[in-house]
Amino acid sequence: MTDLVRISAIAPIEFIHLSRALDGQNGSNRALGGRPQIAAQNDIDAIKAWLARFADTQTTFTSYRKEAERLLLWSVIELGKPLSSLTHEDLLVYQRFLGDPQPPERWVMKAGRKWSRFEPDWRPFAGPLSPTSQRQAIVILNTLFSWLVNAGYLAGNPLSLSRQRQRKAQPRITRYLEQDLWQEVKTSIELMQKETEREQEHYFRVRWLFSLLYLCGLRISEVTENTMGGFFCRRDKDGEERWWLEITGKGDKTRIVPATNELMVELVRYRRENRLAPFPLSGESTPLLLPIGGKQRPLTRSAVHLIVKEVFERVARRIEERGPDFASRAQLLRSGSAHWLRHTAGSNMAGGNMDLRHVRDNLGHESISTTSKYLHTEDDQRHKETEAKHRLGW
């Protein structure tokens, strides 16, 4: 067994050095003959070739690297075999491992803080994966194996034998804020401290963030990865000026979202608070959401997530003060996330009798149903209906 296996060394994929016996050059699942489409001669280089396809989308790249890295480390350390020798049975064992990474001192990060990939205490897991995260990990790995087969690196996909269960569509979205809780959130934001300059800046940032998440139905990644230069104004066929926000989102797809009058009022207020001109210029690089202090850099996804969770926690405490009968409502809010605001926006738009095609296009969904790809919508009408039927009402 190699030194890597014997000492149980854990390192990010950038720093892994494997012996010839473990690097996959002679993996039992390597494709023989044919014309390989990539130059990789070992498993790490093959994984890097696959990851290179996602280099322009940081969130996807990070997620895919994490799953490939975990499997590679597990394969060489726990099984003592290269990734390109894994069998279907090995992958079944790995699926169980994801739900309980043992031994934890080898695989799980110490509690207390998030460790950098470049620190000795870094580990591939923060803890056991939930069933949902386990399924997602296998989906990503199936993508990896399929690509390596198509690239002529592997002879077969060991995950292709897995039974592909069709997940039943949920009859309705449940992760959203009902009207009373949504009103509680807005009221709590309005009651935030505004005495000092820093408190005022934080208040206006929170108000702007929740306006973006709700009125535009944005994902956290769309807030952090887009800029104010995406706002633009154009006249409709009646000569009326309408503002739009161009968003590049999931799957690197671009859509335009109606920037209603209500949203533009909030934008102007937020920009003035940050000593910016009222309206952004085309192509302006100012992030959609700024750190306290006005530095011209985007916030991280975790920072935005924390802002939302802090607001929800503050609201939950206010609700709990009303007595034990409200404990369940407070707990529901504590389980919420920024994505709940996207669902809340979608529920409000659909519940307000908005054309479902307009809801689909506002949220950037692929389709309403399997046949909705044949449906089309006029942008001006979508803007008018969003303006009329989807309001925040601070």
Structural description of this entry:
By secondary structure, this protein is mainly alpha-helical. The protein has 2 domains: 3-150, no CATH class; 179-389, hpI Integrase, Chain A. It has 15 helices and 3 strands. The protein has helices at 3-6, 43-51, 58-79, 88-98, 104-107, 131-150, 179-190, 197-215, 220-225, 261-273, 301-320, 327-334, 338-351, 356-363, 379-389, and strands at 231-235, 241-248, 254-259. It has a 3-stranded antiparallel β-sheet with strand order 1-2-3. α2 runs antiparallel to α3 and α7 (179-190) crosses α11. The N and C termini lie far apart (65 Å).
Give me a quick take on this structure.
The protein is mainly α and 394 residues long. Helices cover 46% and strands 5% of the residues. Strands 1-2-3 form a 3-stranded antiparallel beta sheet.
What letter string, H or E per element, gives the SSE order? HHHHHHHHHEEEHHHHHH
In CATH, the homologous superfamily of the largest domain goes by the name: Intergrase catalytic core
Rounded to an integer in angstroms, the radius of gyration calculated over CA atoms is 24 Å
Q: The CATH topology of the largest domain, please? A: hpI Integrase, Chain A
CATH class of the largest domain: Mainly Alpha
The number of helical segments is 15
Report the helical percentage: 40-55%
Widest sheet: strand ordering: 1-2-3
What is the molecular shape?
globular
Give the helix/strand class.
Answer: mainly alpha
Ranges with pLDDT <50 over ≥5 residues? 1-8, 166-172, 368-376
Distance between the termini: 65 Å
CATH architecture of the largest domain: Orthogonal Bundle
Query: How many structural domains can be distinguished in the coordinates?
Result: 2
User: What composes the largest sheet?
Assistant: 3 strands, antiparallel
Strand-residue proportion: under 5%
Mean pLDDT across residues: 85
Strands, total number: 3
Domain Core-binding (CB): 41-149
Subcellular location: Cytoplasm
Organism: Sulfurimicrobium lacus
Keywords: Cell cycle, Cell division, Chromosome partition, Cytoplasm, DNA integration, DNA recombination, DNA-binding
